[in-house]
Design goal:
It is a single chain. Helix content is 37%, strand content 20%. The protein has a 6-stranded mixed beta sheet with strand order 3-4-5-2-1-6. It is flat and about 75 Å long. It is an alpha/beta fold.
Length: 384
């Protein structure tokens, strides 16, 4: 089998990138690019080293880890140019670059959960996701399967209901955790001039949506990637800024409002933003909007203004006071959204069925009729 180099992490800019060197000459290749430091490393051994190219130039400062007999990982800095230079150096040392998919077909990524971890890594967008996926090969799902396999040994078929329930619970929990790999859609809706675009820009940390004191500035929905934070939990989300909703006879605005409703109903979480500085006069439109988007996260904007956040208190007992202008209340708002997604608390080593194969095995496990079948499925869950 030829020796290959594979980028394990996504192609965007990140703090750290992972590069795999695998094949019969992996030790030789890793030795060349590390100035000999990787030679002789034991499996799971690591060394801090410079990465050098064929001309002897240092292209990065990295960690070299021997993860298998013929497998080395180079943990490099994540800049696009840096990773490209490291891969070129590995190619110069005698490896051929291949895609992650081809490496998997060649059997270089390992079997079962271990290989699926490698395949899932490029989908991670936050350190929370990276840690959770990385833990599944040794802890997480692997530990869950082994612990339940030990429990199931010698159990009668009538006792398997506990295992069935555990498998069903894990499937349900994994639906929430999968948002860490496929960012949820969070739509900001509300009346015109409530500050939706200003809020979107504040949550994004950059100017994406056009803002104006003129009601109806946003005529179509705009989406962009943001990171919501709750304590040490980070979740990438697709944030959607929508047109204001109100009664109107303007044909163009009616179309914009229709698109707003479409985006809202297709979102995983709705943030209903109201103008907390405006006197509440029992407006039918406001009450209708609260009813239409019942179950979403309700926020009262402009709490930095005198009386802001107080005028809607009678209708919004659970509303969050925010100021898109000053940033007040944004931490509470992000946490409320993550609570809706069941992601406000994520243990780094909790079990997560993140591939279709894993979920299919869990479905079968939840229906296993006898102990031998259950034991076989639990073993298959880990090794594939």
């Amino acid at each position: 089998m030829k020796t290959v180099v594979v980028r394990l992490t996504g192609s965007g800019v990140g703090a750290i990138a992972g590069v795999l060197v695998a094949g019969v000459r992996a030790m030789e290749v890793a030795g060349k690019v590390t100035g000999g430091k990787a030679v002789g490393l034991r499996v799971n051994g690591a060394v801090h080293t410079a990465i050098v190219n064929a001309a002897g130039e240092v292209v990065d400062d990295a960690m070299a880890v021997r993860v298998g007999e013929e497998h080395f990982e180079l943990h490099t800095h994540g800049g696009t140019a840096v990773v490209a230079a490291v891969i070129r150096a590995v190619e110069e040392a005698g490896a051929q670059q291949v895609s992650l998919e081809k490496a998997n077909r060649l059997g270089l990524l390992g079997r079962g959960i271990a290989g699926e971890v490698m395949m899932a890594m490029p989908l991670t967008r936050t350190i929370t996701a990276v840690r959770l996926i990385a833990s599944q090969a040794e802890e997480g799902l692997t530990r869950w399967a082994r612990e339940w396999r030990a429990w199931a040994e010698g159990k009668a078929a009538g006792e398997l209901w506990r295992l069935h329930a555990a498998a069903q619970w894990l499937l349900e929990r994994s639906r929430s955790l999968f948002f860490l790999l496929e960012p949820p859609r969070v739509a900001i809706v509300g009346p015109p001039n409530a500050g939706k675009s200003t809020l979107a820009n504040a949550l994004l940390g950059r100017q994406v949506a056009i803002t104006s004191a003129i009601a109806g500035t946003t005529r179509d929905w705009v989406d962009a990637m943001a990171t919501f934070v709750a304590g040490n939990i980070q979740v990438a989300v697709t944030l959607i800024d929508t047109a204001g909703v109100r009664e109107t006879s303007d044909v163009l605005e009616l179309e914009s409002i229709s698109r707003t409703h479409q985006q809202a109903y297709g979102a995983d979480v709705i943030v209903l933003l109201m103008d907390g500085s405006r006197p509440q006069e029992g407006g039918a439109q406001d009450r209708a909007m609260l009813e239409r988007y019942r179950g979403g996260v309700v926020a009262m904007n402009k709490c930095d203004l005198e009386g802001g956040g107080e005028t809607f208190a009678e209708n919004m007992e659970s509303g969050i006071r925010v100021s898109a202008k000053t940033g007040a209340g944004l931490d509470e708002l992000m946490r409320a959204v993550l609570v809706e997604l069941d992601l406000a608390e994520v243990r780094a080593d909790e079990p997560f069925a993140f591939s279709k194969r894993q979920r299919d095995v869990l479905v079968a496990l939840s229906l296993a009729e006898d102990t031998p079948e259950a034991l076989s499925l639990l073993e298959a869950l880990v090794i594939g």
